[in-house]
Amino acid sequence: xxxxxxxxxxxxxxxxxxxxxxxxxxxxxxxxxxxxxxxxxxxxxxxxxxxxxxxxxxxxxxxxxxxxxxxxxxxxxxxxxxxxxxxxxxxxxxxxxxxxxxxxxxxxxxxxxxxxxxxxxxxxxxxxxxxxxxxxxxxxxxxxxxxxxxxxxxxxxxxxxxxxxxxxxxxxxxxxxxxxxxxxxxxxxxxxxxxxxxxxxxxxxxxxxxxxxxxxxxxxxxxxxxxxxxxxxxxxxxxxxxxxxxxxxxxxxxxxxxxxxxxxxxxxxxxxxxxxxxxxxxxxxxxxxxxxxxxxxxxxxxxxxxxxxxxxxxxxxxxxxxxxxxxxxxxxxxxxxxxxxxxxxxxxxxxxxxxxxxxxxxxxxxxxxxxxxxxxxxxxxxxxxxxxxxxxxxxxxxxxxxxxxxxxxxxx
Length: 412
Ligand SMILES: [Zn+2]
Hints:
Blueprint: E1 9-14, E2 23-28, E3 31-36, E4 44-47, E5 52-54, E6 57-62, H1 80-91, H2 96-112, E7 115-123, H3 131-142, E8 148-154, H4 165-174, E9 179-182, H5 190-204, E10 207-213, H6 223-232, E11 239-243, H7 252-265, E12 267-271, H8 273-279, H9 295-300, E13 305-307, H10 324-334, H11 342-347, H12 351-356, E14 372-375, H13 380-386, E15 390-395, E16 398-402
Parallel strand pairs: 1-4, 6-7, 7-8, 8-9, 9-10, 10-11, 11-12, 12-13
Antiparallel strand pairs: 1-2, 2-3, 5-14, 14-15, 15-16
The structure holds zinc ion.
Residues 61, 63, 121, 211, 242, 310 line the site of zinc ion.
């Protein structure tokens, strides 16, 4: 029998989502080396005490470059157009240091909320140039000890109608952007934007993550064109669309047909509850529509989906703490998730976004990096229901944060 003493660290009594009873997780050289009940070893121990241990949350869609702007603008914004305009006006004054500082705040909140992987969109255009991109690259480097950051360069204000934007986008791809995004609804020629975005994606062999649609009128959309381009380029499994709020306005029949179309073309959907709930349905005077696409029902039909943060404290969403567990709870509530759906809701901020980002080394499995977070609860469904404290996080076996349980002091 192999002597099991070669671990650097062992997590005891960990509830994982795949084991029926608590297990021990042995860590060696930053990787998960064994998962078994009652591992025999003399390594340093972390007792999870029967609590849920997850491989960290995965945020597929956030905007670090335009987070935390509320102090600098009025807050009368009620529509998407006004929010884009408000940020566009402020963007000219962004400096590398300013973007870094605001992004740092959000990354640190995300880390202590248990996020271990993140994809940030970063705006690239002639107004901001590559300043935000430079700041985000620095954040990626400086916080790699706690969180793996992937950078998606994209033109928020249009591509074909914004001379110079495309050259800057290509410069970002040459200089380390991990993937390319797009926003066809702000372009005067949406299909041409999609054509060019896919061209660059193929040229640089990177994935595509689009801000697709952001209204509740399903009588027109670019979704079909995205599916068509994905199939034409053999890009199945490499394309995601964010918001896709029009899907929330579909009749059951069209919803079913759309889910089948997305599943067939391998196009994933990211739902952004905080922003979608905040900006959609602004025209309604009463019986306001939610404007939230029901991701877990799309998953039932074979579509890969995630729930993500999007904006934090800016005109698009004037609140936020970068907590994906809170976002999954908000989603579950607004999407009428039943208790039997809570596991699926947790999947939307863990395993499914990891697949969306094509992460090959995510999950509590032997050989993967020891990225582990401990939640103060005993099961996946209870994590969604209770919003427990996230007690500690480890990246490659190294502790990156911890949080004490609150204490009550009753009078004696
Ligand atoms: Zn976004």
